[in-house]
Design goal:
The chain is an alpha/beta fold. The protein has seven helices and 16 strands. The protein has a single domain (about 5-125, about 130-230), classed as Metallo-beta-lactamase, Chain A. It has helices at about 40-50, 65-70, 75-80, 90-95, 110-120, 190-205, 220-230; strands at about 5, 10-15, 20-25, 30, 55-60, 85, 105, 135, 140, 145-150, 160-165, 170, 175-180, 185, 190, 210. A hairpin with a 5-residue loop joins strand 9 and strand 10. The protein is globular. The two termini are about 30 Å apart.
Length: about 250
């Protein structure tokens, strides 16, 4: 089965080296990230395996513009009629069909190899599509009881993470960090120092579970593990006012 439960109401869809997520909400489904181009069919098959229908997908939440996250957003939008939500900085790129700003490897030999292999072959474009809704740090989307938006630049200037307070708190961290060979920095950043500040920001939040664009989810004590690696900011962030951006 392509879809696996992280916590009740949140499913992970493995698309090879990258993950997408499906969040169940009373008014329909929210798909978070869309994989590379050509992934729409796999995501919608996973929706069917969940016992739901593609017509129930109402929201496409794209964490950032990179082609492994935004590559199938245009196709999914056509197939489902769902609206797209992104941060303004990356929404502008997706509307223009752009997928990449310059990236540098995180220090370390493995990261250098990943950068050489992935950046050289990574598409610099995605199929352009409209992004109906723009959200920023502190917004709360009216999805699944309230989905908190956290702006986490560094890996990508317009990257978003999402905090779902249900089920003890679940962080959808996108590529702010990875959990492939253990919890770690992403191998690639536009601005590493900014990325480290974003991780300190996430470490200040309260969540039991965390899931990632790349790697396995952490289902217990995830916030404590973040705090062990990255000194948190002094006060929680991302606890803004409810918005209706997601429509």
């Amino acid at each position: 089965m392509a879809a696996t439960i992280i916590v009740p109401g949140l499913w992970e869809v493995s698309l090879g080296f990258v993950n997408a997520f499906v969040l169940e909400s009373p008014d329909g489904l929210a798909v978070i990230d869309t994989g590379i181009a050509g992934s729409a069919g796999k995501i919608l098959q996973a929706v069917k395996e969940m016992g739901r229908e593609p017509t129930e997908v109402r929201h496409l939440l794209v964490t950032h513009c990179h082609s492994d996250h935004a590559g199938s957003v245009a196709e999914l939008k056509r197939l489902t009629g769902a609206s797209v939500t992104m941060h303004p900085a990356d929404a502008a790129l997706v509307r223009a069909g752009k997928a990449l700003r310059p990236l540098k490897p995180t220090p370390g030999l493995i990261n250098a190899l990943v950068c050489r292999l992935m950046v050289a072959s990574a598409p610099t474009e995605v199929e352009a599509t409209e992004v109906e809704h723009e959200v920023d740090d502190g917004d709360i989307l009216p999805i699944a009881g309230g989905l908190h938006v956290v702006h986490v630049p560094g890996h990508c200037a317009g990257q978003l993470a999402f905090l779902w307070p249900e089920q003890g708190g679940v962080l959808i961290a996108a590529d702010a960090a990875a959990n492939v060979f253990g919890l770690a920095l992403s191998p690639l950043y536009e601005d590493l120092a900014e990325g480290q500040r974003s991780l300190a920001k996430l470490a200040a939040l309260e969540f039991e579970a965390a899931c990632f664009g790349h790697g396995k989810p952490i289902k217990r004590d995830a916030a404590a593990r973040f705090r062990k690696k990255w000194r948190p900011n002094s006060a929680p962030v991302g606890q803004g006012q409810a918005t209706t951006h997601a429509g």
